[in-house]
Amino acid sequence: RKAFAEAARAKANDINLLNALGKAHLQIEQPGEAVIYLQQAQALAPENLTIALTLALAHEKAGNPSAAVAEYRRRLQSHPDSANIKNNLAYLLATCSDPAVRDPEEALALATQANAAANSSNPGLLDTLATAQAETGALSEALTSLQRAIKIAQATGKTKLAQELRNKRGNYAT
Length: 174
What we know:
This protein is mainly alpha-helical and 174 residues long.
């Protein structure tokens, strides 16, 4: 940890280093530290979408979902067609335990838009759609979306993802 701080001080204007330090802290489960490095990187490169999305994830993992939602919303304004941003925001809105953040209806709308943009061909996006559908009480639709995600994951060689998705099926039993 001390080595990370020293590296950051030595190269305080190195966007790639700050971003890497943020990601490293996420990997070692220190999201609060990750937020600090990623905010520094974002200050140097405010339009960098990769840094912004990693920062949103760090906020979420640090227990600050409202900051994550704010970051996703800010990026969605400048990238309104981004299925990735819509998907991440939708998943957070559908699953967040904080009632001030949770909004399954908006999550469903965002997940539906993201899937439409990808022609319902991305298993990760379909998984988020299934989650949002289930959170709004549409369990039959959730199961259908999940089954499609499993089929696509299996067909594209993503066997680990397919198994993870299969394990969720019980959550959507009607």
